[in-house]
Amino acid sequence: MNQDINRAFERVSPELVQEAAGFQAAILADVAGRRGAMHGRISALRPRMTVAGPALTVEVRPGDNLMIHAAIALARPGDVLVIDGKADQTSALMGTIMMTACKQLGIAGVIVDGAVRDSLEIDEMDFPVFSVGTNPNGPTKNIGGRIGHPISCGGVTVHAGDFVLADADGIVVIEREQLASLIPVARKKVEDEARRIEQIKQGNTSASWLGAALRMAGVLKEGESL
């Protein structure tokens, strides 16, 4: 097999995927140090769409989807196709036919730093797709690329097998080796935020940290308050 196609990578486990899939992308991005979130140019075709799973990484030349077809053939059920399409919006890299094949094969969803088409049909399929937008132009199928290698997608480095989670807010990537350690931290953050929201609903709207932060920033002098 050509060295541009890497099959020998470890995926984040299905058990961890199931645990982590219950969190919002914002929660995971926060506990990961506010890093790992892709550029906002890549967003859900429809806000209700969500996807979580191990990344099957694909790099293509702008406007050419040959290697995406190859990746679909190599994908395992539960994989998320994460495609570096160089943020090109001049032609679509995928449409109904390819998305139908993905769904039939059990691929969890598609994240593409590029355009797609047939968006209404994809919506009716209820298959999760995140892209930089749509374009009716079709792609070529002439140029090689890479599968299973590190890519840059939405400004974030993604290794094959990393955990990706996407929702209405966007997409976050967590390194495979880090995910297990972040789950309890994410769980605690959810609990802390729920407690704070309940306090706010009961009338305690003041942020306890605000005064100190304003003094640190020089907005307030020592002893002053809002």
Automatic annotation (TrEMBL):
Keywords, in A-Z order: Magnesium, Metal-binding
Pfam families named in the record: RraA-like (PF03737)
Q: From the UniProt record, which GO molecular function terms apply?
A: metal ion binding
Residues annotated to bind Mg(2+) = 118
Sites where the protein binds substrate: 95-98, 117
Q: Which cofactor does it need?
A: Mg(2+); a divalent metal cation
- CDD domains with a match to the protein in the record: RraA_family (cd16841)
Q: What is this protein called?
A: Putative 4-hydroxy-4-methyl-2-oxoglutarate aldolase
- Which organism was this protein described from? Ramlibacter rhizophilus
| Lineage, highest ranks first | Bacteria, Pseudomonadati, Pseudomonadota, Betaproteobacteria, Burkholderiales
